[in-house]
Amino acid sequence: MFKWDMKKKVIAGSTAVIMLAAIGAVAFLYQPAEKTDKIYKSALDDFNNGKYQNSYYLFSKISMSSNLKPVAIFHRAECAKMLGDDKSELKQYEFLFNNFPKHKLSIKSRYLAGQKLLDSKPDVAKKYFEYIIQYAPNTDYATASEYYLGLLIKNKHQDDKIIASSIKDDVQNYFRHYLKKAPSGKHGLNVVNNWLSFVDNISNDDYLLMANTCYLFGENQKARELILNTDNHESWILDAKTSYALNDYTRAKSVIETGLQNYLAYADEQDVIDVIDIYNKISPSVDRMLGLIPTNSPKGRDYLLSLKCQNTIQSEKASCYSKLYLEYPNGRFSADALSNVFFAKIKSGDIVDAKKVGEDHLRKFSGTNSSPMVMFWLGKLYEKTNDYDKYNYYYRNVIDKYPDSYYAYRAYLKLRRMQGPIITTNMKPQSVDYPYHYTKNNIIVKLVELGDYDIVNEFSGDDQFIKSWVLYKKGDYSHSMLVARDAMEKITEKPDKFDMRWRLVYPILFYDDVNKYSQEAGNNLPLILSIIREESYFDPLAQSSVGASGLMQLMPLTASEINTRNSLGMVIPADLFNPSKNIKLGNYYYKFLRTNLEGMDISSVAAYNGGIGSLKNWKTSINYNDTDEFVEQIPYAETKNYVKKVFRSYWNYIRIYSGNN
Description:
Elements: H1 2-29, H2 33-48, H3 52-60, H4 69-82, H5 86-99, H6 106-116, H7 122-135, H8 140-157, H9 165-181, H10 188-198, H11 204-216, H12 220-227, H13 232-245, H14 249-262, H15 269-282, H16 286-292, H17 301-310, H18 314-327, H19 334-348, H20 351-364, H21 371-384, H22 388-401, H23 406-415, H24 443-449, H25 453-460, H26 464-473, H27 477-489, H28 501-505, H29 511-521, H30 525-536, H31 556-565, H32 579-596, H33 601-610, H34 612-621, H35 627-632, H36 637-658
């Protein structure tokens, strides 16, 4: 009986142990999401505060069932790295890509493991890099793996007394592939140095690849030395750029002249435009360059003719642009040329012919940068002849097809019969949320909620709007806006105004100060916000090459005058980098411009960029019938574009945040 009782107790005890183990296993495999988030956040906070040992432990407590587990493993590797524990770091990387091979962090973990094993286990590292190239060929990690594979072969054979040519070819192929894919990549200079130290029989084309990388890294003297080993007809563009960067203007000018005369066939069109711009900075002479380019070579000539037409007086623009268009009807600048012919016809009063040219432009060059301008002005022409259906059609089409453009704004004013440029609205800031619809379990949103911003970029791939949103959440507003702006420019058919991506392109920042001081100075809030956006991209520390500073890019002398005139009590120039004080000064400066320009906002915006003296001179020298004609004829291209950009931003702030359409 005693033995039987003991046996039952042993069995019961064993069962209890098994049950406890099972419970522990279940707890390891599953835990409530709230608890997971709390542990993860604590681990991340410890990591950011340098408590790597505790962070390493806390990340281990994330349940295997959570979609945060692979990220937690990656963070454990990072903790081990910060603690100098190479063995644990490598173990975590390998655990991640072996157990979660399809996870977004798997390739990165394999890549980092390869880096760790370069010296200790080069054969294993080689397998990791080869795997990345095979299964993730279009990633940056695959490109970098090309560099490491070349380096591994070089390190293995660099002390050999005789190195087979096939070995050198393998190294060169890997290094060549890297520089072609990522000429300015982080390993670029290492590629150049290792290549030069290992191979002595390098081709002219490869020297040019290396020279280009050196130029992109600002190693201009080394780039020049490498260019000496290249063929002039292939390297003249890079030679000109490098010489200009070295302030060797004599050589730059000579190389460009020789290249334009003899080597155009070996250069891309954009490269030719780049060196033409360099030549213009050294020795402005469009006619001189036109004389250098062979008449049977279109490359560069159309750009030079376009530059010539830009500087031609208004009465001769139609003839100049007509010549450009007829000579290059399908060239890169043909759409712009025909739009200028169109406007010149309007200015000459030839309405019938202007309509024909404008409609011809829309047929031939649909969707080009000049399309909204032509569409808007066709609306104005048909409005003059009281053709209601036609002008309504063109104005509405501008708004529908180019909703975020300056001309959509002008068309909106026309359709609403509004006389002034200001649209009354109650614009208020709104939250900037994740730019897409998402499910509750979205890992990117979860990581941002937890503040794990750096990992998000691994999940976003090439989506620039997600990158922009992450930058916004991190407080890098200027960079965020620029990334979103560039991404939106690439979208042909724009999303509707309620799309969250617009709030990244046109964020409302420094609202309290803009609201307070625009009211105090009697300015329009969204217009001041638009000036800040175009002047500094919301960077409080922005400073131009001529000294304009802060959010509203004020010159110290101008700021001092405004400060004294309005008794603002500021310290110039130090206070220009204080966001609140800069916004206050900028508002009072804009008030000064409006007061001296009879309250006209478009004139005041033009004066903000071009100067009040220049603005008053243009007002008397330009022949115009209305605001639209004046803006199109502002002589300074920078100021004309500035006015359009500011009021484009103004329009977008209003339509995005107050519902106008």
